[in-house]
Amino acid sequence: MDFVGNHIISVDQFDRQDIARVFAVADELRVYAARERITRVLEGAILSNMFFEPSTRTRLSFGAAFNLLGGEVRETTEIKASSLAKGESLYDTARVLSGYSDVIVMRHPTAGSVAEFAAASRVPVINGGDGPNEHPSQALLDLYTIRAELTGQGKKIDGLSIALIGDLKYGRAVHSLCKLLALYDNLQFNLVSPPGLEIPQKLAAQLQAQGHRVQTYHQMEAGIRDVDILYVTRTQEERFPSQEEADRYKGLFRLNQLVYTQHCAPNTVIMHPLPRDSRADAQELDDDLNENPNLAVFRQTDNGLLVRMALFALVLDVADQVHAHSKPVTWFTANRSPAS
Ligand code: CP
After folding, report:
1. Atom in ligand 1 nearest the alpha carbon of residue 273
2. C-alpha of residue 327 to centroid of ligand 1, in Å
3. Which atom from ligand 1 is nearest to the alpha carbon of 60?
4. Coil, helix or strand for 181?
5. Ligand 1-lining residues (CB < 6 angstroms)
6. Any idea where the domains of the chain sit in the sequence?
7. Phi and psi, residue 19, nearest 5°
8. Model pTM?
9. CATH for 136-298?
10. Residue-wise pLDDT tens digits, 313-327
11. Is 11-134+302-328 a domain of CATH 3.10.450.590?
12. Contact 144, 182 (CB under 8 A)
């Protein structure tokens, strides 16, 4: 795809070459995320960060990514704090914000809403998550992390086996990741969910049609054996018709150190898009895995900064100018690597 000036709404826009381009730019930007250098390549540019659903890492990392490239960030964080609460349409909101912004990131609870908004926007719009539908930047950072973790084990994405565990019905991160992974060759997908929270049938059929092996499991222990990657997800309780219904699924699948030791190969990588639900009745990814070296969840969040910087650099056409606007960091920073 041509990134410059374009919206990023769905992973369906990408082919393997596009993904390689994003990852190459992300690799180049590592020195800025690690605070080894500053770049001001987006000095004067404005990001409107519109999050109409709760978020910690997507909102903050998109904002920090823009700041690290030298740009400024303006935010709205709730529907009730915006004029959407007064009945303003997405069309009008997009027309207004286009005049204030060089790029917009938007999260919204309704599937398709970000595409509707983007259709009215004069500036590029990046989907920060639209209901249960898609979360393209999460899928890119997950795939970037998978590539790094597998490379460390001498493996490739082609041929990998992955268990996707938990709420596969409403988990937009899972939906987007599956579609990206499907671009690679000869994968094994273990779809591990409680009955009722299976992945949408259309998506499972798409994976099979693209030549991958797809196996459905309703017992976690059976589904997590002999895979390279465990990708655990939270019950997306905000998407259920009622809290009572969501509560029926909470805590059914719990990955902890004991389960991992008993059922997984020693180097199995553990991922989760986060947030994990650490309340006593949930705990799908137990805190007792925190010191497990195969737990990649905080490497995922760090990689999110790189991938989101790369998306801004590509969409705003500065990927080749970043280093020309750089200088050394002068302050103490714990983020700098010891070798620098
Ligand atoms: N993974 C993710 O989307 O996290 P947030 O909801 O905190 O942004």
Report:
1. 1
2. 31
3. 8
4. helix
5. 55-59, 129, 138, 273-275
6. 11-134+302-328, 136-298
7. -65, -45
8. 0.96
9. 3.40.50.1370
10. 999 999 999 999 999
11. no
12. no
